[in-house]
Amino acid sequence: NAGVTQTPKFRILKIGQSMTLQCTQDMNHNYMYWYRQDPGMGLKLIYYSVGAGITDKGEVPNGYNVSRSTTEDFPLRLELAAPSQTSVYFCASRQPHGRGSYEQYFGPGTRLTVT
Amino acid sequence: AQTVTQSQPEMSVQEAETVTLSCTYDTSESNYYLFWYKQPPSRQMILVIRQEAYKQQNATENRFSVNFQKAAKSFSLKISDSQLGDTAMYFCAFMKQGGSEKLVFGKGTKLTVNP
């Protein structure tokens, strides 16, 4: 089991550029999440998905889009990158409550800088 | 909305000693879970310990234990026999049962274990 994998590990974007952060899990988890972590802060939820084809906004969705075409993959799209999106991005997954552990498993994170 | 507060931005402890990290939360929910996550310099989010709100018994995991005071909405983490490898950011997190089951994080406490 590779768990939750994220690519790339680091990226520098210019203002106005776009990119997709990739997230894949091999644990057959239904729930997947994208969080961002700003310096000196805890993680905040951007988007989440409870299964293929179903996504919903979290606390800080502006400037981002997601899709969930398969159980395994949950990419995060940044359109028109802005300096405020400089952050570390974490993808996580878990099974829904009542189906095994309720632990969220995190990927290693992507450090994104927008200049 | 739920909030999680960690009032100690930084703490330090001598190797082999005991340290307690504080966490308080605010919620009107009845069914929820509380977690402590460790984030070492590698950035990886690692689950340390979890507590189900319906359980009165405090959770323990080897050198890690919690003091869960439900009425006071307090959830502190005690680390016994501190080791150099315990140096990390520690995040307290809340999860409401049902719905997105997202994690709501505190801002974290930076713990340094000194030799």
Question: How would you describe this protein?
Answer:
The complex is a heterodimer of chains A (about 120) and B (about 120). Chain A has about 120 residues and is mainly beta. Chain A is about 0% helix and about 50% strand. Chain A is built from no helices and eleven strands. Chain A has strands at about 5, 10-15, 20-25, 30-35, 45-50, 55, 65, 75-80, 85-95, 105, 110-115. In chain A, strands 2, 4, 5, 6, 9, 10 and 11 form a seven-stranded mixed β-sheet that branches. Chain A is globular, with a radius of gyration of 14 Å. With about 120 residues, chain B is mostly beta strands. Chain B contains no helices and twelve strands. In chain B, the strands form three sheets. In chain B, strands 2, 5, 6, 10, 11 and 12 form a six-stranded mixed β-sheet that branches. The interface between A and B is medium-sized, with 26 and 21 residues.
What descriptive keywords fit this protein?
heterodimer, A: 115 residues, 7-stranded mixed beta sheet, 11 strands, B: 115 residues, mainly beta, 6-stranded mixed beta sheet, globular
List the helices and strands and how they pair.
The complex is a heterodimer of chains A (115) and B (115).
Chain A: E1 4-7, E2 10-13, E3 19-25, E4 31-37, E5 43-51, E6 54-57, E7 64-66, E8 76-78, E9 87-94, E10 105-106, E11 110-114
Chain B: E1 3-5, E2 10-14, E3 19-21, E4 24-26, E5 32-39, E6 46-52, E7 60-61, E8 64-69, E9 74-79, E10 88-96, E11 104-105, E12 109-114
Parallel strand pairs in B: 2-12
Antiparallel strand pairs in B: 1-4, 3-9, 5-6, 5-10, 7-8, 8-9, 10-11, 10-12
